[in-house]
Every structure is written in C-alpha cells, then in structure tokens.
Amino acid sequence: MSFISFVCFAASTAAAFITAPLIELLAALFLLFAYSTKFNERFKGFHWPLMDFLRCVSASIIFFIISIISVSKYVDGASKAAGVFGFITTIFFALDFYFIFNELANFLKGGDSSEEPPNTLWYNLILFV
User: Fold this and answer.
1) 59 to each of 2, 64, 77, 106, 114, how far by Cα in Å?
2) Residues 6 or more apart from 9 whose CB is under 8 A from it?
3) How many whole angstroms separate alpha carbon 30 and alpha carbon 110?
4) Is the predicted pLDDT of residue 33 greater than 80, yes or no?
5) Under a CB-based contact definition with an 8 Å cutoff, are residues 80 and 70 in contact?
6) Any idea where the MARVEL domain is (predicted)?
7) Residue closest to 22 by CA, chosen among 6, 11, 10
8) Is the pLDDT reported for residue 122 higher than 70?
C-alpha cells in the first residue's frame, strides 16, 4: 500500500508528499529483510518489535495527515486517489500497530515464555505490497 500511495503521489500535483510513502516503504523493506533473513537475531541490543511498533504508529499518523491534506487541498484525480490510498494505508498501519501492541503487552506481562514476541513478517509483507 505504501508503494501504491508513492506512485499516486508521484503522478499528482501533491508531489511534495512523496517522501512520506517512500520512507515508509524503505522502512518496511528493511524490517521485512531483517525478519526474513534473521538479521534481527544478530543484534540483541535493539528491541525489534518495539522499533516496528514505533514505525507503524508514526506511519499511520503521517499517512492520515497527508491524506487529509491531499484530499482537501488538491483537485486533480491523482491527488484524490493518493489520499484515498493513504487512508487505506493508514488503516493497515493502525491494524499493524494494534497487533504489535498486543504482542508487546503480552510479552511485557510475562505471558509468553519465549525471549521475544513473534515477529511481524507477514504484517510487513502486507504493508509492503
């Protein structure tokens, strides 16, 4: 969804907002790479699910703001489409940070016996596409 928003913003007159979808796309790619290649297990100093949680929270807020601006300020169809896809991406990121929050809360309560909560590889894959 970040890629679709990126393409829509690139084709619209609201091209000033192209950096937000691009940065979120690259962050999702990095975390997808880290989880899929077990790169995150080499660096125990970082709490990877917390980093993913903060990325999802910031992405949902940023996408919501730029979608409102894109839909309300610009009149071309590509800007409106970028805003609509931005709202859909906001929903996906909000769902992702809700699921990650539940995993983190369960982990912090001690309800999970593993060292880390389960990774969010599938969530990152969905957000990437």
Assistant:
1) 10, 8, 23, 23, 28
2) 15, 17, 18, 21, 70, 79, 82
3) 28
4) yes
5) yes
6) 1-105
7) 6
8) no
Rounded CA-CA distance 122/129 in Å is: 11
Predicted pLDDT of residue 111: 57
Quickly list DSSP for 48-113.
HHHHHHHHHHHHHHHHHHHHHHHHHH--SHHHHHHHHHHHHHHHHHHHHHHHHHHHHHHHHHT---
Query: Average pLDDT, whole number, for the chain?
Result: 81
pLDDT tens digits, one per residue of 40-91: 778 777 777 788 888 889 999 999 999 999 999 988 888 899 889 999 999 9
